[in-house]
Amino acid sequence: MGAIFAFGFALIIGFVGLILLVVGIKLWKKVKIASIISLVFSGICFLPILFFVFIISFSIIEQHKMKNDYIKENGKLFAEIVYGDKKTIYKEVVESSDLNVVNKNGETPLYIMATRGIDYFPIIKKMVEKGADPNFADESGRIPLHAAASNGSSDIEIIKYLTDKGSDINKQDKYGYTPLMLCVEKSKYTGKDAVQIVNFLISKGCNTKLKNDKNEDSIDIIMRLMKEEEDWCKAYPDLDYQESKNYIVYKKLLEILKEA
């Protein structure tokens, strides 16, 4: 917003400069001193416009260079995923012959799209339709379902779609986290949205007893989060941990997991 305001201000100053330029030209033969003053101020007024033109041009050139460097490192498809809009990404997906390629971080295009959320659902569907493997794990052992399950309930349709397409709901990453466990862990950020995802994953038969590398299952994770929230609230006399939004969500998740 600040940049837009500054650019608008520069345009106004530039318009004033244009008026002064016209006045200066008209006064040149009649009153040269006034004309020179007018032309000088006109030039000063055009400086903000020239500055913005320089900045924008530099930004475009730099972004183009960064994109070309990214293409060299990761390929055109990943470059469009990072720098392109939804339309160009979709077009690149349609034209791609292999959607199970990985970038330098070991991530597939489908995994990255799953981190983007529901706005990219049509692209996710097209990827799977064209052969993208929903169980292809990145270097950390995570599959697209891990990414979607940790994003919040806006991604519930993505989660349903991936599970319908055979995504492994009990897949553990190299730290032992399943999509369910990761959803529970991230519930301090996703809030009540996590409840919807946990309910869905349990309805699909996910294993709630699997443990991570800290020997925690999903219930252990929730108990840890509840203790952390309680300790944090106790540091502030005016806060009641039992009334905090996070704690209320944790209690609901604990109830669901105990009943599973």
General form: globular
Instruction: Please work out how many helical segments DSSP would assign.
Output: 13
> Which architecture of the largest domain per CATH?
Alpha Horseshoe
Question: Major sheet, described briefly?
Answer: none
Task: Give the topology.
Elements: H1 2-27, H2 32-74, H3 76-83, H4 86-95, H5 109-116, H6 121-129, H7 144-149, H8 156-164, H9 179-185, H10 187-190, H11 193-203, H12 218-234, H13 245-259
Helix pairs in contact: 1-2, 2-3, 3-4, 4-6, 5-6, 9-11, 9-12, 11-13, 12-13
Mind explaining what this structure looks like?
The model has no long low-confidence stretch (mean pLDDT 82). The chain has helices at residues 2-27, 32-74, 76-83, 86-95, 109-116, 121-129, 144-149, 156-164, 179-185, 187-190, 193-203, 218-234, 245-259. α1 (2-27) packs antiparallel against α2 (32-74) and α3 (76-83) runs antiparallel to α4. It is an all-alpha fold and 260 residues long. Helices cover 67% and strands 0% of the residues. It folds into 2 domains: 1-74; 76-214, Serine Threonine Protein Phosphatase 5, Tetratricopeptide repeat (Alpha Horseshoe), CATH 1.25.40. The longest helix is centred in the N-terminal third of the chain and has 43 residues, at 32-74.
Question: Which tags fit this structure?
Answer:
single chain; about 260 residues; mainly alpha; Serine Threonine Protein Phosphatase 5, Tetratricopeptide repeat; 2 domains; 13 helices; globular
